[in-house]
Amino acid sequence: SQTIHQWPATLVQPVGSPLSLECTVEGTSNPNLYWYRQAAGRGLQLLFYSVGIGQISSEVPQNLSASRPQDRQFILSSKKLLLSDSGFYLCAWSTGLAGNYEQYFGPGTRLTVT
Amino acid sequence: GDSVTQMEGPVTLSEEAFLTINCTYTATGYPSLFWYVQYPGEGLQLLLKATKADDKGSNKGFEATYRKETTSFHLEKGSVQVSDSAVYFCALRTGAGSYQLTFGKGTKLSVIP
To answer: What does the alpha-carbon distance between residue B22 and residue B2 come to, in Å, rounded to a whole number?
Structure first.
C-alpha cells in the first residue's frame, strides 16, 4: 500500500531564516505531487504541483519554492521566511492516471514563524 | 473559475443526531466531487467521492450524492458519534488538464456525548 511521509511534524523558525520541508511517498511510481498550505480559519491553498522529476508548477507567487530531486521526493523551501508563512503545510500525491483524481495527503507540518 | 461553498460552522450535535453538511459548487465541465475529513492535528483523509451525476459516495456511514441539477454534494450521516468530531472539506476537480483540487473552507463538526 502507499504511504506518504512529511517531516518535520512541527517547526518554529524566526523571521528571515531558511526553510526546508520534505515529503516522500512510498509504494507508488511516477506520482503527481502537491504542496498545500492551510492557514488558520481558511481553506487549503495549492502552492506547487509536480508531474515528474524536475517539473514544478507554481500556483501562487510567493517567497517559497519547490523541488523534486527524485521521483517520490518533494521539497518545499524558502530562503527567508516571513511571518505570513506560518501555517499548516500539507503534501499530497495522486496517480498520474486519467480519471483518478483523488489526492492523498500526508500528516502535515505545522510551521510557526516568530 | 471553479469554486466550492460549504455551510459555515461550527456545527455542534449530540451523539446519535442526524448530520447534514451542505456543499454546492460552480465548475466548468463535469467535475469529480470529494469529501475529505481532517481530525485535529492531522492531514486530510479522503472520506468519499463521486465521479458523475447521480453517483452516491459512501464510507463509514457517511453518504453524499452528486446532484448535477442543483450542483450540490451534501454530506449526510444518520447517527453521529463523538469520534466523528473533525473538520470536513468538500472539494472538486474538473477534468483532464487540471491538477488542482478546489476546496471549500471546511466545516468544523463537534459531537458531544
So the answer is: 17
d(CA A79, CA A64): 8
Question: Nearest-5° angle of CA A12, CA B36, CA B45?
Answer: 60
Which letter does DSSP use for residue B72 in this model?
Answer: B
Upper half-sphere CA count for residue A106 (Cβ side, 13 Å) = 28
pLDDT in tens, B28-44: 888 999 999 999 888 99
A69 touches chain B (CB under 8 A): no
Residues A25-68 pLDDT 10s: 999 989 999 999 998 767 888 899 999 998 998 887 678 999 99
A42 with B93: Cβ contact below 8 A: no
Counted across chains A and B, CB pairs separated by less than 8 A come out at: 47
Rounded to the nearest angstrom, the minimum Cα separation between A16 and chain B is 26
Identify the pLDDT of residue A98: 65
Contacts of A34 in chain B (CB under 8 A): 99
